[in-house]
Write a structure and sequence with these properties.
This protein has helices at residues 2-18, 24-43, 48-75, 77-81, 84-89, 95-127, 134-160, 163-184, 187-190, 193-205, 215-221, 226-253. Helix content is 82%, strand content 0%. It contains 12 helices and no strands. It has one domain (2-253). It is mainly alpha-helical and 257 residues long.
Length: 257
């Protein structure tokens, strides 16, 4: 019964989001990719496949994170404002089942978006003679993990603050999470042990999104340490479970009146 309730909520959440034509971005990015490849053919020499792969992976990440941001902000708050949440949880559906179903529904849309854009990227890359290697697929998996962490982070903030502040806090953490690894390599940080400790502590407590960005390994080095892949995967999974635990805890105690 519990799994059936979660599945039904997830199904209708995905259906509602898909009806908003959110996946039209796949068509737009497909046209943009065709334009990039055309330009690359005319203005680059021997680097067309690299340009196409770089653009495809970047589009994949930005598109999916964008959906997580703009759909995740209203995922729960809209249900509370429209009072549809009262009709759902008044039935034999617990708060935890409701929240898990909503999150899984949006995750389903995110994964569909990632799948379609990944297939489009790989198709274009293959048609222009690109070489396939395992690191490309590792980058796609990292993008999925990043989007899940972003979505859960946004859902967490949406339960404790307003929509505007949710966007500001989430965007700040997302940008900082990507910049933190570069900040650690600056001369200022390397010469000051205290600053290095603070940056390390940030990566331990708050989401270190830079860990999921392996695009440079894919495009330029074409290889990735297998231990890094597994450690980052575990980091993403455990951080996601931690955020989900916080979300369930807050929503169980949240006053919906």
């Amino acid at each position: 019964m519990m799994l059936n309730n979660i599945f039904i909520i997830a199904k209708y959440t995905s259906k509602e989001i898909l009806q908003s034509k959110i996946l039209l971005n796949v068509l737009l990015l497909g046209l943009a990719m065709a334009g990039v490849i055309f330009v690359a053919f005319n203005f680059t020499y021997g680097e067309v496949s690299r340009v196409a792969l770089n653009f495809g992976l970047s589009s994949l990440s930005l598109s999916s994170v964008g959906i997580a941001f703009f759909m995740g902000v209203t995922l729960i708050s809209r249900e509370i404002e429209n009072r549809t949440v009262y009709m759902i949880i008044s039935r034999p559906v617990s708060r935890s089942q409701f929240i898990i179903g909503k999150i899984l529904g949006l995750m389903g849309v995110l994964f569909i978006n990632i799948l379609l854009l990944s297939l489009l990227t790989l198709l274009c890359y293959g048609l222009i003679g690109g070489e396939f290697y395992s690191t490309i697929f590792a980058a796609i998996i990292m993008t999925m993990l990043e989007c899940v962490v972003v979505l859960l982070m946004i859902c967490f903030f949406s339960l404790i603050t307003t929509q505007t502040l949710t966007v500001l806090f989430s965007l700040s953490l997302y940008v900082t999470g990507h910049a933190i690894s570069e900040a650690k390599l600056t001369t200022f940080a390397m010469k000051r042990e205290f600053v290095s400790w603070v940056l390390e502590g940030y990566q331990f407590v708050l989401p270190a999104f830079a860990k999921f960005n392996i695009k440079d390994f894919v495009v330029y080095q074409k290889s990735l340490d297998i231990s890094y892949f597994f450690n980052t995967t575990l980091y993403g999974v455990f951080y996601s479970l931690f955020l989900l635990f916080l979300i369930l805890l807050i929503f169980e105690k949240k006053n919906l009146d």
